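Supplementary Methods S3. Complex input for the zinc ion-bound model.
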Amino acid sequence: MTFDSFIGNLKIVDRLRAKLRTERFPHGLIFSGPEGVGKHTCARMIAKALNCTKAATGDFCGECSSCRRIDSGTHPDVMTITVEEEASQIRIAQVRQILSMLDLKPLEGGSKVFLIDPADLLNPEASNALLKGLEEPPEDSVFILVTVNVRELLLTVRSRCQVYNFTPLTLEEIRQHGVSGELIARWSQGSIGRALSLDLTRLHKERELVLDFLEMAVSAGEDQFQDLLALSADLSRAKQDFDDRMTILSVLIGDVLYLKENIPGKVINIDVGERLARIAGAVSGDRLIRMSEFLGFIASSLKNHVNRQMLTDTLAMVANETVSLWLS
Ligand SMILES: [Zn+2]
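Predicted complex, serialized as structure tokens:
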């Protein structure tokens, strides 16, 4: 296995490989971008390239003892720190452990690589401690900070690192990973991590509930209003599923908007395309956009423990032409 096995974000990989070949590799790197697009995998590949005992400069073999121990997390010069079990942040003691290794020579003659993932969960003291390491890194040390959002990191940390912004994978790249189901490939939205962890049975079940609600919300007349409120109650009942249901609803609304705009290639839920097309015919683009905006309001209201059913009832009213007419 070499860099050629990495799928997606090829420009980033090319730039990193070019730097590896110059032997003036930066001491601080930030890999920023959405979950599940290969940031951590790429960071481990860099660690392997810097320590591989077989491959030519700038590459790795994936088979030598050094490469294998980096994969299994047992290489003495490559250290990963992450949030420990039952903690919510990376603690200063973990960063100090890295700093204590800084002045030591690499035990196996390659480079010391410190991988911090997720770096946005360094607590403030830990971030400040890390700065010391980034300010005067020894020649043979490389820090790689992995984060979903570079802006979550201290400016002082960012300014000492080269930032690489990873982007979601294309549908084709998701398929290259061996994802064969079209619905999973589309639902992954460019994250191979999400594609591999998606529970299709559960998605179908939850989506059915959400789709029933959406269909009735856009079409219910006065006489169906009690039924609509009953669906709203079903939708809001289970607290643990509510976030996922709202995510599904926002994706469905996005699909309906794509259909209205005549961009069917962007539709995610292609297997229910006909139902989405009927919704597209029954509701205006403005109303869909207002629903989308209201979903943003729901996300922020949930943090303040607003009643879930009140939110979905209101959403139903935002969606429904008849009720909107009464209210205006
Ligand atoms: Zn190797």
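The beta strands are 28-32, 78-81, 112-116, 141-147, 162-165. The radius of gyration is 25 Å.
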